What we know:
The chain is mainly beta. Helices cover 13% and strands 48% of the residues. Strand 11 and strand 12 form a beta hairpin. It is globular and about 50 Å long.
Amino acid sequence: MMNTLSAYETLPKGIESHGFRKQLKAGIWIDGEFDWYSEEEMAVNTGGQMRSLIQSFSKQHISFVRCTIKNTSAFLKSPKMVFHYENMRDPQNVAFYCPGEKAILHIGKKSISLLGGVVKGKGISQYCIQGKGSLYQYGCFKSLKEGILSYSPLAKGEVSSIFSLEPEIQPDECIEAVAWVIHTNTKEEALFMHEKLLSALPH
């Protein structure tokens, strides 16, 4: 997929993409610690043993966030990349997780939004779909120490969704995780785009 993503990444950030940026917020949980990050932010985690870079870019109906993480330690690491989404265009939603597609759908009166992602060939691991007021900085975690999200597969109204991508990273290995939001008028269009993205990414 990196060829496809590179094509999106080099496009100018015009009016078309402006409305989608900032809709996916990214954070990283490592070894019992969690932080949200800004766009284009480089971070050093857990005593300098992990280095991460968050990047965002958009193309037409799709907004991407890419997390690049390198394990500079001598030990296997299992970070969790966490992504937070709120549908600002249509606040009255029904949102739910689709296990077959490994995606979260937000269905509103005016739009469809599909959330997905992949890292090392693996899709969404955990998800938490709740009313907007229920999700504060760490409120999505059932156990912050263990990195376990509160399980909630369905919500209605002003909805926020949080999901995780969870790779294992060998010593000195560098990996990339990509998450996305697809905005379309129909569920069929969203699922088609989602499948095309999954098939284009490396496994």
